[in-house]
Amino acid sequence: MPESSDIKATLTIEDGPTLELPVYKGTIGPDVIDVSKLTPNGHFTFDPGFVSTASCESQITFIDGGKGILLHRGYPIEQLAKHSSHLEACYLLIYGELPTEEQKAHFEYTISRHTMVHEQLRTFYSGFRRDAHPMAILCGVVGALSAFYHDSLDITDEQHREIAAFRLIAKMPTLAAMSFKFSIGQPFMYPRNDLNYAENFLYMMFGNPCEDYQVNPVLARAMDKIFLLHADHEQNASTSAVRLTGSSGANPFACIAAGIAALWGPSHGGANEAVLEMLQEIGDESRIDEFVARAKDKSDPFRLMGFGHRVYKNFDPRAKVMKETADEVLKELGIEDDPLLKIAKRLETIALEDEYFVEKKLYPNVDFYSGIILKAMGIPTSMFTVIFAVGRTVGWIAHWHEMHGAPYKIGRPRQLYTGYAARDYPVKPAK
Predict the structure, then answer these.
(1) Catalytic pick from 224, 232, 316, 367?
(2) Residue 279: CB atoms within 10 Å
(3) Lowest CB count within 10 Å: 75, 142, 379, 391, which one?
(4) Which residue of the set 72, 233, 268, 404 is catalytic?
(5) 8-54 and 76-407, same CATH topology
(6) Domain 8-54 class in CATH
(7) What is the CA radius of gyration of the chain?
C-alpha cells in the first residue's frame, strides 16, 4: 500500500456524507485518489475498462502516452533497445536493477540451462488437432506445466517464485517453437545451450534434423528486439489478467496461461496478426487509396490496423526502434518487392505524410512494424501473437513476483447493476 498522504480530495455526495479521500503521489505520472472509503458509505466508482483506475502500486514500468514515453525501471525503452538485450531487460524487470557482468553471465547461463521441457510434454502436443491455432496450443500447454513442475509452486517462497520465473522465461520459446513445428508436421527441435535466446528460438523454429541450420545474425538481432520491445507495458489487459489470477493464490503457470488467453484477443496481442490480414485484404497497391478513403470515412467500419495506439497519443516509442529494425531486415533479405510489404511501406508513407493521419496522430505503431518483420522472416501470421507472448512472459512474471512480494488483496471488481429488482417466481396454481 502507498504511504499515508496529507493531501486530500473532498467528495460531497448529495443527500449523503462529505468524504475526505487520500491523494497519493507516484514518482512520476498522475496522482491517485484512494476511493476505498466509498464502499462502506454505500457507493462504488464507475469506470468501464478500468481506464481511470489504478489497480495496484508498481515499480516496474511507467508510460506517458501523451509524451510517448515508456520506461522500464526508469530506463527509456529506446536506450534499452539500443544498448541492452532481451535477457538483460528480463533481469532488470525482475530484480529492479541492471545486472553486473557477473550477474548477467550467471542469469544467461541459468536461462540457457532451463530451456528443455519435460519429455512427456512431447506426447501432450499429440492431443491437439493438427490444424489447431498455435495460441490455443500454447495456452493449454503452459497451463499444464504445473503438472510437470510441481516441485516449486509455493508462491509464498521467494526462491520458488524465482525458479518459476527462470522456467517460464527459458521454456516459453521452446514451447512456442514446438507449437509451430506441430502445426506444420515437422519434428520438434531440442534447444541448444551454445545459442543465445533469440538465436535458439529461430533455430527451434526453422531448423530440422536433416541439415545444419545457421541462424542469420541480422534476423536474430531483430527477434531479440521484438522480444525486448514487447517485454512489458504496464497494467494492460493480459498483465491485469495475470495479477487478477495471481491474487487468488493460483500457481504461476496458471497465471501466465491466463495472460496468454487475454493476449490472444485481436485488440491486444492479436493486433500484428490483424495488420497482415488487413494487408491481404487490400491485396494490391492499386487499392491503397480506396482503403485509405474508407479509413477516413466515419460511416465505414473499416479501420487501418497498426496505426495509432490506445495509450500513446503521440508516436509509439517502440515503433521508432521497430521501423529501423524492419528496414534492416528487409535490406538483409532483399525482399522489398514482396507485394504485401510494398503495400505496408506505402501505407507507412501515407500515415507519416497525410494531413488526416498526422493531425489525428495515427502513426504506425509497434504492431505494424513487427508484423512486417515477422512476415519477412517467413513466420506465419498464426505465430505472431505467440511470439508476442514469448516476449511478454517476463513482464507477466515480474508483475506476478512483485505482487506476491508485498501485501495484496484478491481482486474483486464490483458493478452497476441494472437488471430486475427482486421478484417472485410465478407459481402455477395446482390442478
Answers:
(1) 367
(2) 24
(3) 75
(4) 268
(5) no
(6) mainly beta
(7) 24
**Would you kindly state where each structural domain of the chain is located, as residue ranges?**
8-54, 76-407
Q: What is the pLDDT of residue 361?
A: 81
Q: Which residue among 72, 86, 230, 309 is the active-site one?
A: 309
For the question of residue 367 being annotated catalytic, the response is yes
160 as an active site residue: the answer is no
Provide the CATH topology of domain 76-407: Citrate Synthase; domain 1 (1.10.580)
Calculate what percentage of the chain has a pLDDT beyond 70. 99
Return the residue matching grid coordinates 503452459: 142
pLDDT tens per residue, range 315-342: 788 888 888 898 899 889 988 777 877 8
- In tens, the pLDDT along 34-71 reads 998 888 888 899 999 898 999 999 999 999 988 889 99
